[in-house]
Every structure is written in C-alpha cells, then in structure tokens.
C-alpha cells in the first residue's frame, strides 16, 4: 500500500524526511533529517549536524512524501510546500503532511499492523 497523507500514521516512517515544526522544547524546532530509527516513544533523525533523537510526545512533525504519495490529489492537511517555506524538495513532486507525535505513540510494528486512526491535520 502506498503511503498517503491519510495512511501515514499506519506506515513505516524509517526512510521518510521529517522536520520538527512544533515542540514543547523550543530547541528542537527546526531539527530535520531522514528518519533512521523509530521506537515506541521517539524518532531518530539523521540530520546535517548528526543523529538526533526526538520524543514523539509534545512534538509536531512535518513529513515529506514523494513519488506516488505526492501524486494523490491534495486534501486538507497536505501542502505542496513546507510550513516554513524552505526545503530541499518543493512543488508538485512532494506533499507535506503535519502529524502530531501523539498519533505515532505506539510500537511501530503494532501501529502498522493494527492501523491506528489517522490524526493528521
């Protein structure tokens, strides 16, 4: 199944580009990179400044979807450009989906098997 904005919380996140857009810890806002590992409570991002472990609770992430997912007609909650306006990939070939980290709080394998409700915005 293709990763779409609607199904993103039910899929494997490793390999996707993610950016912290809101956090209870202001020092985490702006951290971005490829998701290299996911645990029940954290995402590990490989950024230009090294590997960063970010808690899911209290954090809002913006994921960049490319390829087929970006070809899906844009729905509420997706955009063709990131919230901050800067990115390596913008335009028709990418869709940006904002997800509250609380929607991702579970073991990755369990979340993808049981198909939690999509809480993206």
UniProtKB/TrEMBL annotation:
Keyword match Nuclease = yes
Q: Where is the composition biased (Polar residues)?
A: 77-91
Q: What class of enzyme is it?
A: hydrolase
| Region annotation Disordered: where it falls in the sequence | 74-94
Biological-process GO terms, alphabetical: tRNA 5'-leader removal
User: SMART domains in the record, alphabetically?
Assistant: POP4 (SM00538)
The record's section on InterPro entries has: RNase_P/MRP_Rpp29_sf, RNP1, Rof/RNase_P-like, Rpp29/RNP1
Concerning SUPFAM superfamilies, the annotation shows: Rof/RNase P subunit-like
The yes or no answer to whether the keyword Cytoplasm is present is yes
Please give one Gene Ontology molecular function term for this protein: ribonuclease P activity
Offer one Pfam family short name for this entry.
RNase_P-MRP_p29
Subunit text: Consists of a catalytic RNA component and at least 4-5 protein subunits.
Family, as annotated: Belongs to the eukaryotic/archaeal RNase P protein component 1 family.
Q: What does this protein do?
A: Part of ribonuclease P, a protein complex that generates mature tRNA molecules by cleaving their 5'-ends.
Question: Any idea what this protein is called?
Answer: Ribonuclease P protein component 1
Annotated organism of origin: Halobacterium hubeiense
Q: Which gene encodes it?
A: rnp1
